[in-house]
Structures are given as structure tokens and as C-alpha cells.
């Protein structure tokens, strides 16, 4: 998805900037875990590492988007790190923040929105976080909030008619065959292997990587993810447009949202299996946020949030903004039907949709591995 614009830029009424309170609320709930993790687990660089001219504490946010959530997270990190230095009776260094997202991200809105009272210098780092972006052992602390669920690309097999993985008529894997689900999961596992591999090279020994990612409850199938089920409701809206002859069936058959939602154990397995020699898991905790999908206001808010992260992909695929507008006009009703009538094919009850689920993971870069 390197050249695809995921979230809607700018600061207009449908923008991610104006419609990312859900992600911001989840990040706020995770802040205590992050601050406590910095206090307990962050190892300050040795004094000989901080030679003259090198007294800089480097922070990177992978998948920063356009704000404002990234600025709040960075401010919390800096305050916690400052407290750590002061508690150790050491001089507080200067802070430098690297804001990363895809090359198509709206960095203009991001940098226009940086708070005037910021306590850091800033730089943009465009590029996919599934690969190397920064010099080796150059970053002290990394964060990534509600971004790693996005895949680097759609599994090729799910868009091909002649494969068992063809995801006909669906825009996610929520109501698809086990083969389709496995294709999305395999792509996610490969992407996470690449992500952690790149970060293990960029993070200094003793540094921290904090992740917040949408998750699903332990023991549930991939098709029981609230986020994916809600996103899949857009497929119902598009199906209406197909039935009315507004778009072709091929348009829907060839479109999939590039996302996968893991459980805590799936994330742990990926980390331990592929990068256990590089990282130790300092914390792993689920966070639950009320969804408010039991009332019209909550459903509309969810629709607005999902539009901010889906509209650009749909516009790029369909090429007709007025058709995409019509799909989103119908979308709240489809979400309401999902919650009221339970998701078809997997016996999901409406009670499942009471909470949004997120996973906070804190990793430390092991000191014994230096290359």
C-alpha cells in the first residue's frame, strides 16, 4: 500500500484529523501503561554514548498520520523521559522526533498542526514502516499507535478468480472462507516479521518500542473481530449499489481492505518466534473502549471514523467520488443492521459490539545483541 493514501488528509469535516477521536481515546487509555513502562524499563544511554554533540534523545512514531493524536503521544513520552532523567539526577537531553508515514501521507497538514509549544525538533520520514527507514541504533524510543493493523499489500490470491482464496463479493475476510482468512493472516505475519526486523536494527540497545494495535479477544476466530466486521459492512453498502446498477460486480470483487486484526497470543508468537533474540516483552495488555454502537450517535460517529480511514482507498479504486459518497450515506444503516441482527455466518451476538478492543505491547531492545 506504499503508494495508496490510507487516511483522508487535510482538516475538513471528513478528514482523519477531525475524525480520529476513537484512536485518540484508545491512546489516552494506554498512556499510563506507556509512562509506567518508560519509568520501569527504559535504559538511559551510558554517559560515554552521549558524547559532546550527541546529547539527543531520538523518538520515532511509525504510522503517525496527520495528527492530532501523534502530538499527544509524543508529549506524554517526552514528559516521562524527562522525569526519568531527572530522577536519575542526569541532565535532560534535547529531543528529536521522527514522524513516519507513507509517502502519500498528508505531511503538510501534519507539520502545520505541530503544537507551537513543542519541546522537540521534528522531521518527517516518508516510507513504509515494513522496511528500514532510519540509521542503525539511532532511536531511543519508538511508538506506533493504531497503524500496524494495516497490511503492506492485499494478498494477491484473494483478487484472482482462479484461486481458492478468491474473495468474491467481500471487502474483508469477515464473512469469507478459511482460505481467505489464512491469506490475510499470512500477509500480516510476514509484515510484522519485516516491521520488527527493521525496528530491531534502528532501536538502540536498552531502548523501547511501544505499540497500540486493534485486537480481538483471546479464543476468537479472525472473523469475530469487531473492527473487521464493521468494515465489512461497507461491502453491504457497495452490494446495494451493484444491485441498482450503479457500479459493476467486478468493482466489489476486486476490492479488499488491507487490514488484519490479531489476538495477543498471535502477536506474542510473532515476536518470540522471529525476534525473541532482539526484543524482550516488558508488557502486553488488552485495553477496552466502549463502542457506543447501541445508539444512533455512536453508529454515526463510527461511520465517520471509518470513512476517514476508508474513503481514499475507495475513491482510488472506484474513481467516482459521488458513488463513494452514496456508499457512505448508506453505511450507518448497514452498521446498525450488523449490530442488531448479529453478523451472519458466525453467530456473533450484538453484545460483542459493546467494546472496541486494543492491545498495548511494550518491547525492550536487548543489549546483548549489537548487530
From TrEMBL:
Pathway: Alkaloid biosynthesis. Its cofactor is Mg(2+). Keywords: Magnesium, Metal-binding, Methyltransferase, Transferase. GO terms for biological process: methylation. Coiled coil: none annotated. GO terms for molecular function: metal ion binding; methyltransferase activity. It holds the Pfam family Methyltransf_7. Belongs to the methyltransferase superfamily. Type-7 methyltransferase family. PANTHER family: S-ADENOSYL-L-METHIONINE:CARBOXYL METHYLTRANSFERASE FAMILY PROTEIN (PTHR31009). This is OLC1v1005237C1. It comes from Oldenlandia corymbosa var. corymbosa. The lineage of its organism: Eukaryota, Viridiplantae, Streptophyta, Embryophyta, Tracheophyta.
